[in-house]
Amino acid sequence: MWNEENNKLYQSFTFRDFSEAFAFMARVALLAEQHNHHPTWTNTWNKVEIWLTTHDAGDTVTEKDRKLARAIDDLQ
């Protein structure tokens, strides 16, 4: 579930292991390219954290962020 905080959409994803987390990141990377909208994210072992914000809109959450968040949710 995405939470809006500090002008960003945020969600943490937990996987069975690093390989699953990395595969998820690869799928998200392809989506980000399709949407021409790239997340800020981190990965530590089986955990991926993603923050979405629209930089050219003053670092606020826009429909562009919400669309990418929905697309990421559809991966699961």
TrEMBL record:
- What Gene3D superfamilies does the database record attribute to this sequence? Transcriptional coactivator/pterin dehydratase
The UniProt record lists the EC number as: 4.2.1.96
EC class of the enzyme, as a word: lyase
One biological process term from GO is:
tetrahydrobiopterin biosynthetic process
Q: Does the keyword Lyase apply?
A: yes
Its UniProt entry gives the catalysed reaction(s) as: (4aS,6R)-4a-hydroxy-L-erythro-5,6,7,8-tetrahydrobiopterin = (6R)-L-erythro-6,7-dihydrobiopterin + H2O
Listed name of the protein: 4a-hydroxytetrahydrobiopterin dehydratase
Could you tell me which species this protein originates from?
Parapedobacter indicus
Q: What is the lineage of its organism?
A: Bacteria, Pseudomonadati, Bacteroidota, Sphingobacteriia, Sphingobacteriales
